[in-house]
Amino acid sequence: MQQTLLVTVTVLAASWQDRDGAKPALLNAYMAAPIRHVFADQGFTGRLVDWTRDTLRTTLEIVRKPADQRGFAVHPRRWVVERTLAWLTACRRLARDYERHPAVSEALIRWAAIAGMTRRISRGHPARRQARRTFTWA
Questions:
Q1: Can you give the three-state secondary structure of 78-112, one letter per residue?
Q2: Residue 49 per-residue DSSP state
Q3: Residues 6-38 pLDDT 10s
Q4: Residue 41, domain member (yes or no)
Q5: Are 62 and 44 in contact (CB under 8 A)?
Q6: Rounded distance, CA 17 to CA 23, Å?
Q7: What whole-number distance in Å separates Cα of residue 1 and Cα of residue 120?
Q8: pTM score, two decimals?
Q9: Residue 135 placed within a domain
Q10: What pLDDT digit, counting tens, does each position of 34-51 carry?
Q11: Residues spanned by the domain of 31
Q12: How does pLDDT run across 74-84, given as a tens digit for each residue?
């Protein structure tokens, strides 16, 4: 299984559009690590792709669903994001939006990511699925 590492966190007010919040997040990622290829969903199409290419010299690839898709289907690149968000939400404090200040939310997200990574490191081996349990009624 591919490991996901948190590079940067940007928390914005709900009144911001995701597309507008992407610039600070991409700038932070650019400054923190040599990331040169970013996957994004269809909400980030448009001028952001050009801005990322021209300003950051980074490729922003929009992950689109196949034209012939009907119903739900797992998209591998988007699944990495969803899986990471699920791991972070396992931290009970992040299950609800209690915080008033974005800096506090960002700190809690970092804390949850660090806790998850140390758990994986201390385990000493890759994660394995638990065996299915079957219950019988006596």
A1: HHHHHHHHHHHHCCHHHCCCCCCCHHHHHHHHHHH
A2: H
A3: 888 888 888 888 888 899 889 988 998 888 998
A4: yes
A5: yes
A6: 11
A7: 12
A8: 0.68
A9: no
A10: 889 988 888 888 899 999
A11: 1-64+74-94
A12: 777 777 777 77
Instruction: Return the pLDDT at 39.
Output: 86
Number of domains present in the structure of the chain: 1
CA distance 52 to 103: 25
Residue closest to 127 by CA, chosen among 135, 116, 138, 136:
116
Cβ atoms within 10 Å, residue 52: 22
Tokens of 124: 């000493």
B/e letters for 109-129, b = 16+ CB within 10 Å, e = fewer, are beebbeebeeeeeeeeeeeee
Q: Which two tokens stand for residue 83?
A: 């899986």
Residue 3: inside a domain, yes or no?
A: yes
Name the residue with tokens 């932070």. 28
